[in-house]
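Troubleshooting log. The previous structure file for this entry was overwritten by mistake, so regenerating from the original sequence record. Sequence copied from the archived sheet and checked twice against the printout by T.R.
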Amino acid sequence: MSAFIAYVDLPGVNWSRLKHLRRSPLHYRHVLDQGSEDTTSRLVGRALHASALQPDVYAAEYVVYDGDRRGKAWTDFQAAHPNASILRRPEADQVAAQVAALHAHAVAGPMLATATHREHAVTWTDEATGIACKGLVDLGGPEWIADLKGGPSLDLFERWIVREGYHLQIAWYRRGWLAMAGERPTCSVIGVEAKAPHDVGVFALDEALLTIADRELDRLLLTLAECRESGRWPGRYPDTQQVEAPSWMLDPENMLPTEGFGEVDLEF
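Regenerated output below.
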C-alpha cells in the first residue's frame, strides 16, 4: 500500500481540504461533503510523486496503456487491471523523464538521495483550536523538508508559489514536522517542468514568507473552528455588497455620453 493511500485514512484536517476555506467556508464544506473530481493531471502528479519518492510502489501500483482512454480496448484493459492506476504511454514517458531530470539536478538530486523521510505522514493537534491536523511531507531530512511540484514552466514559479498557496502548504507541513521531530526545519519547493527538457529548480522559502503563511493558517483554523461551533458555512458574500462608481467614471471628461444610445441593447 502506498503512503498516500494509508495517509488518506488518517483522521484530521489536511491542506488539500483546508485550502478551499481561503475562498469561503461554503466552498470548504462543499469539497468536504462532495469530494473533488479526479483529473488526468492529478493522476500524473501522483505518479510523479510515487516514481520519484517511492519507486517500488510506483512499479507495483501503476501500469501503462498503449492507446487512448476510449473504446473497447480501453475498457478491457481497465477490467484486466481493476486495482491499478493506469497511465497512457506518453504520460508514463513524461513521468520517467521528469524523475530522471530531478535526479540529475545538482541540488534536487542530492536531496532525493539523502532524504531520511519520503511521503511521510505527520499528525498534530492545533493548540489554539484543538483541531486535529495531518500532512504528508514529500521529502525530509534532519533539518529540512521539501515539497515536490510538477508544472508547466519555472519562469514564474516564484509567483506560483504564492499564487497557488504552496508557501501555505509547506508551512502546514512544517507544523507537523515540528510536532513530530521537535525541530523547525528549513522549507523548499522543488519544481520540475512537465515539458522537455524538464527543467528543475529548488526554491527555498525565507522565514518572512513562512511567518506570513503561519498567520494565514491560524486565521483559517480559527474560521474552521467557528464554523464547526456555529454550524454555519457562509459563502464569500454573506452580506449585501456596495458597488461604487470607479474614479474614472466620476471624472466628467471621461464619462461616456448618455445621448444617442436610444433603445440599443448592449450585450456583454
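The chain has a mean pLDDT of 92. Archived copy saved in two places this time.
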